[in-house]
Write a structure and sequence with these properties.
GO terms for molecular function: adenyl-nucleotide exchange factor activity. This is Hsp70-binding protein 1. By secondary structure, the protein is an all-alpha fold. The protein is 71% helix and 0% strand. The longest helix has 18 residues, at 36-53.
Length: 306
Amino acid sequence: MPNDVPDSYWKALMHFAQQVGAEDEVNRSPARLMNPEDQQWLQEAMSQLIKDTDPVLRMKKELEKLSKIDFYSPTEEEIDRGVEALSMIEELACDVDVACDFFKVGGLRMLAPLIASPAAPFRTQAAAVVGQLCQNNPDAQTQILDAKMLPLLLESVVNDADGEVKAKALYGVSCLVRGNERGSAEFRGLNGFDYLVRAVQCDPDNQRLVTKSAFLTAQLARQEENKAGIADHLAALLLLLPSDHQGSEHVIDALAEILTHPSDLTSTDQLALINFLEERIKSTDLHEDERRPVEKLLKILNADHE
């Protein structure tokens, strides 16, 4: 049978055998040629080992499973098989090199149909795969952006009927745009901050979505070079949160860094914002480092209302 085992695997096996042989003083025996039957058995065993453990081959295997599924009208059994395959792809993509191989073996073409599938489990897991692929991976971020996935993810964050899909889509957005200059520019061009504010407006009871939206808004606001309009987005989001919400701390910190004068807020009800901040500062649970940005904002805002 043809030798489909790469040389690197044979070298690793030889190195292992030499190590074991050197350490085994009792059972050591002279080296000898293997007979044809043993050679065939070892070849088949090594081939099977590669199929079971080589991450690229495993990625191809999972993608092949997905290629046999109708994403638009799947059966329950197909949904189970598809989610299992996507979960394995997400796990494999933790390795940056393997994540890049995902694109080389044709995985990208399946993502948009999966995110558009009527099956929520497919949409959830596909968004999770996007996030894992893009995490700290500029090459993957470029390919996902080229495929116009950012608008699809932003639409899912706001308009998907499933709360878990929204949260995973937001995770995908976060991994795609944080620290990525092109991703941040496209996010801004798509009015991405509006999407994050609307996500909280539309689903205020989805605490994971609300908290992550607040955190991401604050992070992206800080990395924006053009701060025009950013203060209003932060303030709009802040006014949607309870004053004691854990996500409000991130937004307040970012707003305190950006706001220099009340005129920076062009579409915000400043009195409502002052009331929010005054309510928050009444909390006895605030630490000093949490209290300082609130006091700073109140000083800026009250200067225009004295």
